[in-house]
Amino acid sequence: MTLARRHEQGAIKIRDIAAESDLPEKFLELILLELKNARIVDSVRGARGGYQLRRDPSEIPLSDIIRLVDGPLAPMGDAEQLRGLIDKDADHRALYEVFLAVRDAAAKILENTTVADLVSGSRAKKAGVKAAAAAGKKH
Fold first, then answer.
1. What is residue 52's three-state secondary structure?
2. What is the pTM of this model?
3. What is the DSSP code (8-state) at residue 54?
4. N- or C-end of the chain: fewer Cβ atoms within 10 A?
5. DSSP characters for 122-133?
6. Spacing of C-alpha 96 from chain mean position
7. Is the Cβ–Cβ distance between 20 and 119 less than 8 Å?
8. 40 φ, ψ to 5°?
């Protein structure tokens, strides 16, 4: 979030990111290395060095970050794995179909939410309004 908030400032030193994010530097180094290998951030060497986003925060979907750090987008499992279970396990097909629908809904939200949305808080507000409206329709 620090890199997104300070995107226009160029490279940010890891100690500044750690302090602003309240994270240990060693832990942050591992995350930044993963993000660098995935070409989401760049590292800049030298006295004015540090890390910066490679693209504008509005061009980075949250799904890219989640997949990189956590793997599949939803706790229900991989979509292909769920489709296989739906095909193979008739007794539990309906349950796996629900899990797949939940996974697909989560994926859609994460793919349509950018890092810039998180920084501005706009996506959280939109998601809250939509969830409240949907809950109201169910009752």
1. strand
2. 0.71
3. S
4. C
5. HHHHHHHHHHHH
6. 24
7. no
8. -95, -35
| CB 109, CB 133: distance < 8 Å | no
Phi-psi region of 121 (alpha: psi -120 to 50; beta: other; left: phi over 0): left
In terms of C-beta density within 10 A (0-12 exposed, 13-18 middle, 19 or more buried), how is residue 43 classed?
middle
Rg (CA), the chain: 19
Beta-bridge partners for 53: 41
**pLDDT digits 0-9 by tens, 32-59:** 999 999 999 999 998 888 999 999 999 9
Measured CA to CA, the distance from residue 75 to residue 35 in angstroms comes to 22
Query: Which string of b and e fits 105-126 if b means at least 16 CB within 10 Å?
Result: ebbebbeebbbbbbbeeebeee
Rounded to 5 degrees, φ, ψ at 28 are: -65, -40
Given a contact cutoff of 8 angstroms between Cβ atoms, the answer to whether 53 and 3 are in contact is yes
